[in-house]
Amino acid sequence: MGHQMFFPRLFRLLGAAVLFSSLPLSAKAEATQYGTAGPWTLYRDTYDGKIEECYATMSANSGTGMLFSTQLNSTAIGYKSAHSNDDGTGNQVEIWFDNNRAESQFVEMGYSGEWRVYSSSNSEPDGLLDLFANASSVSFGLTLPSGSFEVSTFSLSGSNQMTKRTYACFQNAQAPAAPAPVPVAQASAPTGYGWINFQPGQQGPHLVAAGQTPDGWPVYVCGAYIQGGFHPGMVLPSSDVCSIGYGGAEQRVTQFQVLTGRGNWKLPWGGNVPDDAIEGGYEADGRKLYICRAAGTEFAGKYRPGFKGCNIGDGGSEVTYEAFEILTF
User: Fold this and answer.
1) Which of 6, 70, 99, 148 makes the best surface tag, with the fewest CB within 10 Å?
2) In the chain, what are the domain boundaries?
C-alpha cells in the first residue's frame, strides 16, 4: 500500500476538472494570482464567488520550495525538497528556526502530492505558525530510509508580510467570480460518457460503478469541483456526499455529479496510462486526471503520472493504493 495521509483539510495546490461537456455550466471555480511579497506569490481559490482558500508559494533551488495556506478552519505550512517524498520516509519532521536546533520540535508532516505539510486548527492558535511568520529562516530535518538525515533550510524573507496578506486574502469575502474554463467532451469511442447531477437514492446500469460494498451496495464514480479543478471520487446511492481524496484528506462534497456510460477497468502496464483511458478531470494547472479504482476493491479515485498510485478519499484521509486499475473506453 502506498502513502497514507492523516492531517486535516489544508492547502489546495492540486485540483482537477473533467473534460466532458455535460458538466454544469453554473459552477464557477477559479484560482487567481492575488499578489507577491519578496520571493512569495499569493493565490486565491474561489468557488462560485466564495473564497475557499488562499495560499502562497515560494520556489528555491532545484525544485525545492515552501508554502503557506489558510482556509476557514485550518492554516498550514509545507515544504518540498529533493527527498521529502521518497518512498519509505516517515511523517516525523524536525523543525527549527534561525539555525537554533537546540529548540527544535518534531511535528507530523504528511504527504500531499509532492509536498510535506503541517496543518493547525484556526480555533487553537499555534506558536509554530507565529515563528514561521517572524523568524529569519526555517530548517526541516527528515530522516531518510537510508538512515541519512536531510536538512532543508529556507530564508523566510517576506514571510511576515505574506502570512498577513494570506489571512487578509481569505477574510476578504468579495472574491470576483470569473467563470472557470468549460470542460469539452473528448470522447471519440462509440460509447459516450457524461456527467449528471446526483440525487440521493439514484441507481441504474447507466451509472459507472467501481464495484459493490460487502453488503451489496454499488459504489458509483462521482466528481466535483474543488479549488479550481474537478476531481473524481466515489459515492454510495444511499449517501449524499462524494468522497474525494484531496490535499491529504477525504473531501466530502455535497454538490457533485456522477459519471454515466460503460467502460472497462484495465490494469496499468509499466506505469503508463492506457491510450483509451477516460479523462476524468484535470488539475488546477491543467494536468489531466484519470479515473481509477484500487485493485480488488470498490474504491474509486484519481490518478495521473507523478502520483504513486490511485488516490482515494476514505476514513477522513487521502489514501494511495499502489495496485490499481484505470477506467477505459
Assistant:
1) 148
2) 29-171, 194-328
